[in-house]
Amino acid sequence: EVQLLESGGGLVQPGGSLRLSCAAPGFTFSAYAMTWVRQAPGKGLEWVAAISGSGGSTFYLDSAKGRFTISRDNSRSTLYLYMNSLRAEDTAIYYCAKGGYCAGDCSLKFYYRNGLDVWGQGTTVTVSS
Amino acid sequence: EIVMTQSPASLSVSPGERATLSCRASQTVSSNLAWYQQKPGQTPRLLIYGASTRATGIPARFSGSGSGTEFTLTISSLQSEDSALYYCQQYNSWPPITFGQGTRLEIK
To answer: What pLDDT does residue A109 have?
Structure first.
């Protein structure tokens, strides 16, 4: 069964850092684009970042550029989100989600062609003093 | 950035009836649109991609239509378990990927 298992959330002070992880057993991890999506308390879904199957291409929400880094270790079937200079407005549940078939560095049209078909349970990040 | 606008914000429908949810894009997204369902306290679930293709395991009473800037999610023969938030998402022009603000569906 395809599963995504996030970890690493917690309470952090403004300006602090966190590393989120998403373990992805059950499928050929390296062949798929992956995405982080967040949901602030009582709010809707917000796309944060995406990465190609090889990890060679990455994309970010404007407010995350320069502060967040998405990466992956295909040998460990694990996705990461490194978050620095955290702000109160980054407080949210962070979900990792599996995208489309994207072995290597594929065209953008492949990242979401089948939607985000598997989601993790989410990990909660709270930025507060 | 493409802005996705969903309507109505909420609706209440009786069991067995049909619900129609709308999603409008601020510019064309072709058929690069997905719909997700999120129940309280749960993870989003993919319902529809490519505007009209049901995801694996999604019942046939969920259907999507539209292209360009106007899209519809129709849920026929509503059941109590369909009570949820529904989001549309465009993936035609990105980054960023953008979601609508959601429609809350209540089953009376």
So the answer is: 87
